[in-house]
Rieske 2Fe-2S domain-containing protein
Amino acid sequence: MLSVENNELLTRTGSGTPMGQLLRRYWVPALLSEEVAEPQCAPVRLTLMGESLVVFRTADGRLGALEEHCAHRQASLYYGRNESEESRDGQCGLRCVYHGWKYGIDGRCIDMPNEPATSKFKEHIRIRSYPVAERGDMIWIYLGPSRDIPALPDLEWAVIPETHRYLSKRLQRSNFAQAMEGGIDSSHVSFLHSDARLWNPDWTHAKDSTRDHLTDDGSPKFFVEPTDYGMLIGARRNAVDGQYYWRITQWLMPWYNLVARDGDGPITAHAWVPIDDENCWAFSITYNPDKALTKEQTDHYRHGGSVHAQVLADGSYLPTRNSDNDYLIDRTLQKTVSFTGIRGIAIQDVAMQESMGRVVDRTKEHLGSSDAAVIAARKRLLAEARALAEDATVAPSGLDPASQRVRSASAILPRDVSWVDATAESRQAAQRHYQPS
């Protein structure tokens, strides 16, 4: 369990908090590119770690991320006009509709039509702007000190061809740490995502090696290897013929995970980003580094298959199956087919993580050996947040793009073989994706 003090440190991410200061040193996955796809599109309102922003793409295709409120009377720029160079001042920018103050992507006030033409007042007005970039169908924003802007992440899914990946986004009503911890907990897959029929000893089924390994051994032994980017997590289960089945998860600072890959199939990745202390954005990525995804695969993901979720069409990104409707749990399905009675891997995770409360009281937990990765991730985040709070010149780990070029894996290995050594090659991202074009 965590003390109240440590739980506060882990979960509070606002400006000025130790964890908030740590997380702001990383590029933040903020929006899907499709949300600001068109030049001169409507601004998008966004909250990250308690900070209110608007993001827009100018008429000439540049991206801007500004604090949400106009410097004049604090009206929201979400309602602003995204103007082209054909506007009265001849520049692209976002104009507040209250009194017409207009801002460029650097936050400078470039027009102030309610002041005399001879006034130089606008030259003294500037709102906060944030570095913003686009990579891998994702919009990334940096909220930290300008002197410490790192290179953009080199996660494999972000640099492969667009046809090889599928991204989705959903709103989760819990603190980011609860969601992230679910992503590195490999023991729950034997239960939460299982088929209820597998728990009936009289039911016969066609053998599926992965499913059988997960069901036959629901108490994996965990091994955690610290790395310069985060942690390498091995979950070991017993397999036939005196072997072990290994599910190998990657956790990358501060909010990424790569779920164990089955064979040469697609890889699943997640990013868990705080909106505030009680809500987070969950970005889910399915990608195949070796070939394009098929239409059948992407259609499956688009309709809530695998780790993706169908969301409401109102722009909130709230899943259609949510706490307001008890995730549409089907008790008959729970008795007959699904262990949970809740449809969809993503929503099964959401239901459990949100059911803990917005910020779980970790003093009430009773953690076991299967929680080794969760415990290690908490300790790593807490230690790095404290180190940075004590010395602002300390460089957080996991910022080197080269260290992020990793994959997850799974393997059946003889019991006397090192899982780290045997899977080293399969855990490396393909270097061809990083070669200059």
Notes: The chain has ten helices and 18 strands. The longest helix spans residues 372-390.
